[in-house]
Write a structure and sequence with these properties.
This is DUF433 domain-containing protein. InterPro entries: DUF433, Homeodomain-like_sf, WH-like_DNA-bd_sf. It comes from Pirellulimonas nuda. By secondary structure, this protein is of the alpha+beta class. It folds into two domains: about 40 residues, no CATH class; about 90 residues, Arc Repressor Mutant, subunit A (Orthogonal Bundle), CATH 1.10.10.10. The chain is about 40% helix and about 20% strand. Strands 2-1-3 form a three-stranded antiparallel sheet, with no helix packed on it. The protein has a two-stranded antiparallel sheet with strand order 4-5. Helix 1 crosses helix 3. The longest helix is centred in the C-terminal third of the chain and has 23 residues.
Length: about 140
Amino acid sequence: MLCGASVGRGGILPVGGQSNRLTGAIGSPILIGSRGWVRYTCSMDYDINQFLEMRPKRDGRMRPFIKGTRVEALSIISDSETHNMTPEEIAEGYPHVSLAAIYAALAYYHGARDEVRRMIREDDASLKQQVGAAQG
């Protein structure tokens, strides 16, 4: 986790320009004075690759899976986008998948929407073709 604080003088936070960077723990008080300001922020370095991996499906097409499972990330994305389920609701349906892995699948979707939507279209077309072949 990366934390820091921007500090300056005056009553208004600057939009641009120079600022000092301080580091400290979340919740650590930083006192500047009655006419100063402080903006304290934290961000996590979160690597979704620790939860996702690309593997071939039975038909050979590469798809993102939750590591160590047979759960496709596209299934989780579908639950969220098509069925309007929260990550917590999705986790109830996949008790062997961590909530962090579910969030990683959703982060993958939000970072690569066009690619994921292409995969979903391909899977839908393949399913329709299989159903047509079975019926006909």
